[in-house]
């Protein structure tokens, strides 16, 4: 059992309080994108990025399995790692799609250490639990995020996921600790590449602007995988920075909610 490590820190740790917190985020009007094959969601504390994440979760369709790809902030365990354990949150347990994990395990390590302290996937689960019932997950931690690794992982994923009822979600925040105006300009440049599902342009702009997007590898894997599954474009549903919450625009973190259709 993979137990929660940031409950009570990044989101409410009590079930009743967490349900109330999530309900508030979903007090929005967002058309469902029934054909959505993937998306990008933030993973900061809910007070900062929860509303942005809710825009994506309100728009994506119900699926049998959600593939969640996040960066490995702690750099422990294998550079690319699957989890096979059941994941627990204050709202209950979430089962892993062991069939998909088994199919991927011939090319990607199954290792719980990489996931043990990592928050980028954990914080997504309560949103899924609030929005959907009877789903499974596949969790992939990425400690290596170069373009070559992205091609290998996305190729494996596309081969295994083809024909299955899945949605692929990349967990990432965007620019870290820059003035609000600078963060928005930098983030807009890479968001444009994401909306065009252009991985080469995405990496070029990451390097050109010295971007601090923490989950650029997961975003690129999501882009390549969903393209292989028939996606044609991305849609930006919501963008915000931490400064919108704190009022301090001098040093912010950027958050984008994107769906891919």
User: Would you give the CATH topology?
Assistant: Protocatechuate 4,5-dioxygenase, Chain B
Average pLDDT, all residues: 98
**Class by alpha and beta content:** alpha/beta
**Unreliable stretches:** none
Number of helices in the DSSP assignment: 11
Helix content: 40-55%
Question: What report would you give on this structure?
Answer:
The protein has 261 residues and is α/β, with parallel strands linked by helices. The chain has one domain (15-143, 156-167, 174-260): Protocatechuate 4,5-dioxygenase, Chain B (3-Layer(aba) Sandwich). The chain is 40% helix and 21% strand. Strand 4 (87-89) and strand 5 form a beta hairpin. The longest helix has 16 residues, at 180-195. The model has no long low-confidence stretch (mean pLDDT 98).
Which helices and strands appear, and what pairs or packs with what?
Layout: H1 15-25, E1 38-41, H2 46-59, E2 65-71, E3 80-82, E4 87-89, E5 92-94, H3 98-104, E6 109-110, H4 113-116, H5 119-122, H6 125-131, E7 136-142, H7 147-161, E8 166-171, E9 176-178, H8 180-195, H9 199-208, H10 216-228, E10 234-241, H11 243-246, E11 252-260
Parallel strand pairs: 1-8, 2-7, 2-8, 3-6
Antiparallel strand pairs: 1-11, 3-7, 4-5, 9-11, 10-11
């Amino acid at each position: 059992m993979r137990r929660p490590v940031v409950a009570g820190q990044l989101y409410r740790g009590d079930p009743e309080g967490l349900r109330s917190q999530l309900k508030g985020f979903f007090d929005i009007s967002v058309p469902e994108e029934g054909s959505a094959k993937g998306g990008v969601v933030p993973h900061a504390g809910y007070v900062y990025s929860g509303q942005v994440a809710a825009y994506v979760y309100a728009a994506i369709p119900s699926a049998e399995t959600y593939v969640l790809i996040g960066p490995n902030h702690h750099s422990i365990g294998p550079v690319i790692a699957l989890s096979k354990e059941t994941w627990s949150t204050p709202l209950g347990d979430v089962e892993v799609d062991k069939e998909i994990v088994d199919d991927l395990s011939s090319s990607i390590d199954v290792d719980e250490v990489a996931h043990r302290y990592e928050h980028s996937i954990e914080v997504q689960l309560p949103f899924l639990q609030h929005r959907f019932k009877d789903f499974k997950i596949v969790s992939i931690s990425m400690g290596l995020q170069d373009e070559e690794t992205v091609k290998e992982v996305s190729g494996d994923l596309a081969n295994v996921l083809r024909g299955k009822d899945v949605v692929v979600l990349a967990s990432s925040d965007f620019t870290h600790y820059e003035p609000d105006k600078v963060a928005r300009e930098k983030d807009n440049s890479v968001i444009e590449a994401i909306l065009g599902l252009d991985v080469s342009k995405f990496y070029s702009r990451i390097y050109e602007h010295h971007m601090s997007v923490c989950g650029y590898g997961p975003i690129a894997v999501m882009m390549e995988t969903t393209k292989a599954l028939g996606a044609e474009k991305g849609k930006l549903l919501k963008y915000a920075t931490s400064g919108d919450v704190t009022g301090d625009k001098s040093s912010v973190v950027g958050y984008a909610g994107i769906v891919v259709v």
